[in-house]
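Sequence design from tokenized structure. All designs in this work follow the same two-part layout: the structure record, then the generated sequence. An example of the structure record is given first.
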């Protein structure tokens, strides 16, 4: 195969990878190469522009480490994370909608009793969070496993503070026998996603801001139900309609009510989708703990 030109090179690449053993791999790579080549043709990509693209991706790699994941951030601001979530979490009406996972979840957060204060020293206005976990049929989900995390009043997660080496504003709880949960934390505030790197430069070049509306993250697991990864957003936030990562769903917006003592309360019921219609992976012993 010689003397390929801009008309014939796409088919040549596709033919070269057609013998891959995994048909799903072939499907994905065929589509990726086809669309990448079509993109380059459509914009008549210059060599100089593609080199800038390579430099951008290289910078994303250099700034990524175990605390900072620039490629997830890139996927988020391009709307690709939320597109993938939306395509893969098409639940029946009434179920709590899913949204982006984000880069700030940490495995192995501390466990709290119901009513515990997950702030654990994080700075912010005190806030009580409560609600129930139910199935789509209205049945309570006793003992549901709730993994929650949020930023502090500076808009930073614990892992973004160089001087904090323990979990703050994150924790794991179990709903009670009726599916009810409550815990103490701090008021969620809007925050800017990390924008001191290449993704920040991209946002600036596109005339976009880096802000996310105030929210609290939840990952909810229970035997017999699909895992739910979502956030609850604060009503009246100025960024609800321009979330930098396109994650807002109206059904996820709740009121954080100011109390006479200056603290806040938010109530949010979480509705899970049973796995009965789909084959389930058996849970490992302790997989929910
Ligand atoms: C977050 O909500 O934690 C988040 C999501 C996407 C990008 C950055 C942060
Ligand atoms: Fe967040």
């Amino acid at each position: 195969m010689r003397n390929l030109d801009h008309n014939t090179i796409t088919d040549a690449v596709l033919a070269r990878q057609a013998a891959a053993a995994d048909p799903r791999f072939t499907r994905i790579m065929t589509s990726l190469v086809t669309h990448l080549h079509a993109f380059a043709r459509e914009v008549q990509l210059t060599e100089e522009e593609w080199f800038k693209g390579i430099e951008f991706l290289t910078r994303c790699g250099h700034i990524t480490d175990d605390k900072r994941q620039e490629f997830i951030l890139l996927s988020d601001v391009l709307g690709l994370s939320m597109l993938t979530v939306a395509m893969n979490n098409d639940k029946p009406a009434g179920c709590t909608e899913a949204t982006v996972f984000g880069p700030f979840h940490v495995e192995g957060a501390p466990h709290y009793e119901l009513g515990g204060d997950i702030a654990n020293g994080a700075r912010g206005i005190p806030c009580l969070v409560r609600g129930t976990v139910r199935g789509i049929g209205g049945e309570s989900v006793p003992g549901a496993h709730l993994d929650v995390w949020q930023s502090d009043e500076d808009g930073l997660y614990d892992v973004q503070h160089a001087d904090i080496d323990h979990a703050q504003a994150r924790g794991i709880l179990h709903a009670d026998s009726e599916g009810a949960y409550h815990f103490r934390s701090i008021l969620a505030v809007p925050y800017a996603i990390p924008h001191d790197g290449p993704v920040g430069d991209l946002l600036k070049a596109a005339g976009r801001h880096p802000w996310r509306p105030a929210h609290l993250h939840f990952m909810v697991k229970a035997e017999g139900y699909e895992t739910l990864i979502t956030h609850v957003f604060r009503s009246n936030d100025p960024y609800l309609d321009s979330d930098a990562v396109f994650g807002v769903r109206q059904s996820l917006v709740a009121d954080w009510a100011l109390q006479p003592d200056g603290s806040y309360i938010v109530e949010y019921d979480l509705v899970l989708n049973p796995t009965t219609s789909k084959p389930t992976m058996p849970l490992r012993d302790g997989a929910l703990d």
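The first strand starts at residue 126 and ends at 135. We note this feature because it recurs in several other targets discussed in the main text.
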